[in-house]
Amino acid sequence: MDLTREEEKLLDGTEGDTVSTAYRILLAVGEATHANKLVPIQWAHISGVNYNTIGESGRKFLEQFCLDAKVKVNTTINPMGFDREKPSGVSQEFISKQMSIVNSYKNIGTIESFTCIPYEAYQLPKANTFVSLAETNAAVFANSMLGLMTNKESALSALAGAITGKAPLSDLRIEELRAPKYRIKSSLDMSTELDYGLLGYFAGKVIRASTVGISGVQVKGIADAKALSAGIGTTGDLGMFTLNSESTGESISFGQSEANSIREELNSTERGDVIMFGSPQLGIPELKLLATNTEGKKFTKPCLIFCARQIHNQALSIGLVDRLESTGAKFMCDCCTCLTPLITKGNADSVVTNSVKGAYYMKNANKLDVSLRDSKSITEEYMN
Questions:
Q1: Are 139 and 153 in contact (CB under 8 A)?
Q2: Could you tell me the fold of the domain covering 268-381?
Q3: Residues 6 or more apart from 229 whose CB is under 8 A from it?
Q4: Which of 130, 227, 297, 354 could form a disulfide bond with 196, CB atoms 3.0-4.6 angstroms apart?
Q5: The domain at 5-175 falls in which architecture?
Q6: 51-76 pLDDT, tens digit each
Q7: In whole angstroms, what is the distance from residue 369 CA to residue 24 CA?
C-alpha cells in the first residue's frame, strides 16, 4: 500500500508510539483488504467500550494506547456496560474496570456518546463522505440509508482511524464495489419491526459478500431501517444493503418459512421475566410509538428501555420519559442489551425482546432464554 511522505514519517514515530501503532494497524488492514492508499475520514465511531466486550486485556491495551495521542476527527463511542446514574446491581469491580475504559477514551478526546446509534443522536457528515464506523448496525445503516462510505470496521481499526483521521481505500469505500452482486427477494408481509430484523439476520447468514440487494421490501421508517441494519450486522460480513435495485448474481428467496426458521433459532421460550427494548438503542420515533401503545397501561413485568443519554434528554424535554415511566418502565442510558451485566442468570431466567440482535446476544452471551416478539405484541401481552 502506498503511503505519502507525511504518512511514512508518522508511521516511523514522529508523533509518538500511539500514532505510529495506529498507522501500523491501518497498514495491516489496508493490505488485507487490497487497499492502495489511505484516505481522510470525517467521523469515527468506536466499539469495544463495554468491559464485557473487550475484557481485561482490552482494558490494559487502551490504558497504554490512549496516553499520548488525540483523535483527529469527531469520534463517538459505543455503549458501555451500565448506566452511570443508575449503577445499582453492578459490582464495584465491574464499575472500576468499566470506568478505566471510559477514562482511556476520554483521554484521547472522544465524545462521551455511549450509543450504538450515532446517526440518530448526532449530525453525521453528508452523503459520499468517508467515515470509519465500527458498530455493526451503524456501519450498515450509514452505508445503506445515509450514503456514507465505511467498511464494517473493527474496534481496533476504527480507533486507529480516529487517531490518524485516515482509513484504507477499499471495499465499501470504493463506489463500484458498493453495487450488489446478490439479491434477497422477499415475499413476506413486512408488518412489524421484527420482520425487518428477521430479514436482516437471514441476509447476513446466507450472503457472503459486502453488499446485498433486497427487493419486495419498503422501509417505512427509521425503526424498520434500524432493525434491518441490526439484523444484518449481527451475522456475517454484509456491510450494506440496497433496496429494490438490480443485481447481476444469484437471487435468494425470503418468505414466511425462512422467517419462521430464524425466529425458531432465536426464540427459546414463550414467556419472559424481563422486557427489554433497545438493541439498537431506541430513538425518538420509537419512543413516541411505544408511549402511544402503552398509554394508560402498566407493564406486568419489569421493563427496561435502553437509549442514548442524548436521546433520553430530548425525550425528557418533550414529556416522553414521564409518559413511559408512568407505565412502570425504567430507562437505562449509556448501555444497551448486548453483553450487559444488568440481566444475567443471577436475576432472571428469560427475557422478552423485539430485537433479533438483542435476542442473539441474550441467548448466546448471557445464556438466557428469549421470547422474541414484536413491540406491539409485547405491549398487548405484558400490560394491563
A1: yes
A2: Aconitase; domain 3 (3.30.499)
A3: 137, 138, 140, 141, 144, 145, 200, 241, 280
A4: 227
A5: 2-Layer Sandwich (3.30)
A6: 999 999 999 999 999 999 999 999 99
A7: 42
